[in-house]
UniProtKB/TrEMBL annotation:
It comes from Microcoleus asticus IPMA8. CDD domains: DSRM_RNAse_III_family, RIBOc. Transmembrane segments: none annotated. Its EC number is 3.1.26.3. SUPFAM superfamilies: dsRNA-binding domain-like, RNase III domain-like. PANTHER family: RIBONUCLEASE 3, RIBONUCLEASE III. The active site is at 52, 124. It comes from the Bacteria. Homodimer. Keywords: Cytoplasm, Endonuclease, Hydrolase, Magnesium, Metal-binding, mRNA processing, Nuclease, RNA-binding, rRNA processing, rRNA-binding, tRNA processing. Belongs to the ribonuclease III family. This is Ribonuclease 3. Pfam families: dsrm (PF00035), Ribonucleas_3_3 (PF14622). Digests double-stranded RNA. Involved in the processing of primary rRNA transcript to yield the immediate precursors to the large and small rRNAs (23S and 16S). Processes some mRNAs, and tRNAs when they are encoded in the rRNA operon. Processes pre-crRNA and tracrRNA of type II CRISPR loci if present in the organism.
Length: 237
């Protein structure tokens, strides 16, 4: 079941599926299953889990090979920008998944085909399904790299420089908590000349993430990145 490419200028070669059931599952949101009791097939949440893991690995590999001059912190921030919700939603739209998602009537009426969370989740499920369909990591890698190559370098650079602590604080405020994130940072190891710090970030006494770094600043940034990554896995951002 081939998909048509609405953005020919990107010259992205779209994959065909041998197993149409896998593709259908990747496009099926749980709202569709809930509203259609006679539908016996699975929704796309398990495929989303697999696709998320694949994209995390492949984006890390892609950036590691593309930027040998960069350290861990820069690569981590760029990876977050390359596979965040907004970017994956753009990928989904670029390959026309927004028009192929199977949503319940309620989700559709609420603008589901333009919802970044639904779009990004569907793209992740699509990648998971393609891997299971081909059982060939190289084919998945080649397709995903076409998508990554389509993102302008300046876009990744700009989005990756947004401070992770600010992004996490914005999420906290957007979700109605007036308590700002609290960072607790201690020196965990290293030497007097090369110390290593461990930071933990709390909101209202609840631990959200932790990270290590060669300075308190880096450790706190990494703790915020960890918090954001955990929120993404839970579907909260």
């Amino acid at each position: 079941m081939p998909l048509t490419n609405p953005t020919q200028e990107l010259k992205i070669t779209l994959p065909e599926f041998k197993n149409e059931k896998l593709l259908r599952q990747a496009l099926t949101h749980r709202s569709y299953v809930n509203e259609n009791p006679a539908y016996r097939e699975e929704d796309n949440e398990r495929l989303e889990f697999l696709g998320d893991a694949l994209l995390t690995f492949l984006s890390g590999e892609y950036l590691y090979q593309r930027h040998p001059e960069m350290g861990e912190d820069q690569l981590t921030r760029r990876r977050s920008a390359l596979v965040d919700e907004k970017q994956l939603a753009r990928f989904a739209t670029e390959i026309n998944l927004d028009l192929k998602m199977r949503l319940g009537k309620g989700a559709y009426r609420e603008g589901g085909i333009t919802n970044p969370n639904l779009l990004s989740s569907t793209f992740e499920a699509f990648i998971g399904a393609y891997y299971l369909d081909t059982q060939d990591m190289d084919k998945v890698r080649n397709f995903v790299r076409q998508m990554f190559d389509s993102v302008p370098e300046n876009v990744v650079e700009t989005r990756s420089t947004v401070d992770s602590k600010n992004r996490f604080q914005e999420w906290v405020q957007a979700n109605g908590d007036t308590t700002p994130p609290k960072y607790v940072t201690i020196q965990e190891g290293g030497t007097p000349h090369k110390p290593e710090f461990l930071a933990k970030v709390y909101v209202a006494e609840k631990l959200y993430g932790e990270g290590k770094g060669k300075s308190k600043k880096d450790a706190e940034k990494n703790a915020a990145e960890d918090a954001l990554a955990k929120l993404k896995k839970r579907g909260l951002i």
